[in-house]
Write a structure and sequence with these properties.
This protein is mostly helical and about 170 residues long. The protein is about 80% helix and about 0% strand. The longest helix is centred in the C-terminal third of the chain and has 29 residues.
Length: about 170
């Protein structure tokens, strides 16, 4: 008799799958409400408007593109060798295109800049972990922190750029 009673109680209790589905639906409801509130707080861009973070991103991309070309033209070397011209030109063109696109507040340009910043943050964070001296650690930190800050502010700017105009 005792065994049958235990089985009956187990059958009445919701399964682990049902509990997971219930939790997921409650979580999605809360998450959707937060997302909706965040969208309602955003103001769409006015014609010709550009968020400050996107302007900073455009200036950074322009500076990197020009600096890369200037470094090559000035005869700069990396570890005793001149960099390959196709690599210099392709990177510089990429940065100049990102600068132009961000200046025009184009979503694709901001998304591309976010991807580049994400890679920079990842690479220099790894270099920070393996840094063998204080100078290398300081250089890594000096690159990771501003890149992360710009990355963070570009996220909201991307949402405003992508946002449809309200009527």
């Amino acid at each position: 008799m005792g065994r049958r009673g235990r089985k009956r109680r187990r059958e009445d209790a919701p399964s682990a799958r049902q509990q997971r589905e219930e939790f997921t639906s409650r979580y999605r409801t809360r998450s959707d409400a937060r997302n909706e509130a965040a969208r309602a707080a955003l103001d769409p861009l006015e014609p010709g408007e550009r968020p400050r973070a996107v302007t900073v991103g455009a200036i950074v991309a322009l500076a990197l593109g020009i600096a890369n070309l200037a470094f090559y033209v000035a005869g700069g070397e990396i570890e005793g060798d001149r960099p390959a011209l196709p690599g210099v030109i392709s990177y510089s063109l990429l940065m100049l295109a990102a600068a132009w696109g961000q200046w025009r507040a184009r979503y694709w340009a901001v998304l591309g800049m976010e991807a580049l910043l994400g890679l920079i943050i990842l690479v220099f964070s790894i270099l920070l972990v393996v840094a063998s001296n204080v100078a290398a650690a300081l250089v890594s930190v000096a690159i990771v922190i501003p890149s992360a800050v710009l990355f963070w502010f570009l996220i909201k700017a991307m949402a405003r750029i992508q946002m449809p105009v309200r009527e």
